[in-house]
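Now for one protein, fold included:
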Amino acid sequence: MTVPAFYPIGIPGHPWTDAEKAEWLSRQVRQRSYQADVLDAVEPLREHFDVVEYGCVVYGDERFPLLAIRNRWGDALPTVLVTGGVHGYETSGVHGALHFLTHHAAAYAGRVNLLVAPCVSPWAYERVHRWNANAIDPNRSFREGSPAQESAALMRLVAPLRDRVLVHIDLHETTDTDESEFRPALSARDGKPFEPGEIPDGFYLVGDTENPQPEFQQAIIAAVAKVTHIAPADGNGEIIGSPVVAPGVINYPLAQLGLCASITNARYTTTTEVYPDSPRATPAQCNMAQSAAVCAAIDHALGQQAAVK
């Protein structure tokens, strides 16, 4: 059943024009600091890692340097890409990446080349929003000629490494505001009816329909289950409208949808989804779950490489 959803901007059934997008932008309020939460947190990492400024997001008079963190690379080592904050409001994606860098990344020195972009969308991070300032979802914009500055900058960074990446894990959240704000806003922006969904209670993964790697996904689920609970399937055997193919795992056609996890030719790719609004999870647990997922992803891939040698 399709239920009309009231959204305070636009006319139902009519896609937004520039006027509606400008009205939407005028309502966005800065709620936290990228400088304090991300840039300042990266500073202590410079002692042990290389910090690369790979671009700059500019909206009006606001400028946000985009940072990536690398360990000391070896030519023969496999490369692991970790991305967070593609959706700026998904807090543990950012802080989970930073948690991994602070607590676990050193253990992979001499084993993998790490490249971590902890906050791909800093403007949205500060506004606690899914979209960028142009009302564009960066995680549907990872394709040639991307309209999103954030997506285009990350793709430029990764382009020379596309064939060297063994693992890409993209850190996300599914929150209650997906259903209360962001999906209604999407329907209003595109002039489409809003169809209510169900928010899953727990952690899950989104693999690639074209390259599902089920053992890889299950290794991550097993590791994260020690930190926080795994989302069950709903009454239709689905999570957010997609069939559950294994406990806590669904698949999307990543490249077709322009999703971040499609930007390399990595053998192992996944998107994490933590549920921070659960009464059974704390912010610290969510960060640790993201970090545990990264470690499990790397460990599984290295184990598989060793097994075939």
